[in-house]
């Protein structure tokens, strides 16, 4: 089996919630998606997606994603897509870094691998636990009572995990407003729910400690990405009373190893495109497991194609360590693909269709932005 063509598509994914507010005054209304279709000599096709969360989230941006794919795609022509590790070695030898550009190519290769052997991708990643996974909401920062209402809306739609965005400058409310947001969002907490209080690296040790002093005892949550650097994380780790989850600081295998070696956090958020796709995502999953870190599987954002990768990796993580999966497709209004999941016991499981199990709606993709072919 050989790769004979690689097509690259660009689509805009409008945010389903209006304007997304993140710490540091960052806002997003639409997300620029790069979608890859790989075709092999026997006509098998595979799909992958990489949608950075704007250009101000991590060191990734959509124009860079497509420029990176242009560097990588010619090298992959003629390769067997099923040799996922060897193809990744080749991508690493062709372009240093740029996980977000490698991810969609890698994911498309896994999709083909699954189709070629008639198995869902999760089987190739080690097998599903068969335990329905909790879905997590993404509650952007805003008025505390309005955030509480959005948590309630997601609860009504079956979400058991909630990611509460905080990290407001002192001039706009600061730690006092963030403490109010946390109290409001947890006010109606139900048994079995899990809360991430996520600053997206937008606070300092000082503002986190001030916020902690304003919170009443007994609130059950983990604090996620409170600060933006390793130094600040280690400083805060000694003084904050809540478990710490890292997200933006986790991109390479070495970041997971550092977290364990320094005991810097209790869990990680594994975002598939941020980690570089399913091949490094699988490795980071295993490093985290060996270190006893909890894992939530997500992506930066994305449509149903991205969510399929999230679901297939997530379902391979033991229940004790898996917290939630993020349904990125629910964050955007454009449906690029149909991805059927099984809803059971308040959670979801990917179905057992071969590959990623998606049916891409090629009509919404338009003409390819670029094509590489033998
Ligand atoms: Mg996060």
TrEMBL record:
Gene Ontology terms describing biological process: peptide metabolic process
Molecular-function GO term, any one: racemase and epimerase activity
Keyword match Zinc: no
Cofactor: Mg(2+)
Domain Enolase C-terminal stretches: 146-364
InterPro entries: DgoD-like, Enolase-like_C_sf, Enolase-like_N, Enolase_C-like, Mandelate_racemase_N_dom
Cited Gene3D superfamilies: Enolase-like C-terminal domain, Enolase-like, N-terminal domain
Domain of life: Bacteria
Pfam families: MR_MLE_C, MR_MLE_N
Mandelate racemase/muconate lactonizing enzyme N-terminal domain boundaries: 33-126
Assigned keywords, A-Z: Magnesium, Metal-binding
Family, per entry: Belongs to the mandelate racemase/muconate lactonizing enzyme family.
Protein name: Mandelate racemase/muconate lactonizing enzyme family protein
UniProt organism field: Arthrobacter mobilis
Taxonomic lineage of the native organism: Bacteria, Bacillati, Actinomycetota, Actinomycetes, Micrococcales
């Amino acid at each position: 089996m050989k790769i004979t063509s690689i097509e690259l598509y660009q689509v805009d994914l409008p945010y389903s919630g209006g304007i997304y507010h993140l710490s540091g005054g960052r806002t997003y209304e639409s997300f620029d998606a790069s979608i890859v279709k790989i075709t092999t000599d026997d006509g098998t096709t595979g799909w992958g997606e990489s949608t950075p969360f704007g250009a101000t989230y991590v060191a990734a941006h959509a124009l860079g994603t497509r420029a990176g794919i242009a560097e990588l795609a010619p090298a992959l022509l003629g390769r067997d897509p099923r040799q996922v590790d060897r193809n990744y070695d080749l991508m690493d030898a062709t372009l240093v870094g740029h996980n977000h550009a490698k991810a969609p190519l890698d994911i498309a290769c896994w999709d083909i691998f699954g189709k070629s052997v008639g198995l869902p991708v999760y089987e190739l990643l080690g097998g599903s636990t068969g335990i329905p996974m909790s879905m997590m909401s993404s509650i952007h920062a805003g008025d505390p009572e309005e955030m509480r209402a959005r948590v309630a809306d997601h609860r009504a739609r079956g979400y058991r995990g909630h990611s509460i965005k905080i990290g407001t400058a002192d001039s706009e409310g600061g730690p006092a407003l963030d403490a109010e947001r946390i109290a409001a969002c947890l006010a109606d907490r139900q048994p079995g729910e899990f809360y991430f209080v996520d600053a997206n690296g937008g606070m300092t040790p000082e503002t986190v400690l001030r916020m902690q002093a304003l919170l009443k005892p007994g609130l059950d949550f983990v604090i996620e990405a409170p600060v933006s650097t390793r130094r600040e994380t280690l400083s805060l780790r000694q003084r904050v009373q809540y478990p710490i989850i890292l997200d933006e600081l986790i991109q390479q295998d070495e970041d997971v190893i550092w977290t364990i070696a320094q005991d810097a956090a209790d869990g990680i958020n594994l975002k598939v495109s941020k980690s570089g796709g399913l091949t490094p995502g699988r490795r980071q999953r295993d490093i985290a497991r060996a270190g006893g870190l909890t894992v939530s599987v997500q992506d930066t954002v994305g449509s149903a194609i991205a969510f399929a990768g999230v679901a297939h990796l997530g379902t391979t993580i033991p229940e004790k360590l898996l917290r939630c999966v993020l349904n990125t497709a629910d964050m955007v209004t454009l449906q690029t693909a149909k991805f059927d999941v099984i809803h059971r016991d308040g959670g979801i499981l990917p179905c057992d269709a071969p590959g990623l199990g998606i049916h891409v709606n090629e009509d919404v993709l338009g003409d390819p932005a670029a094509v590489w072919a033998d």
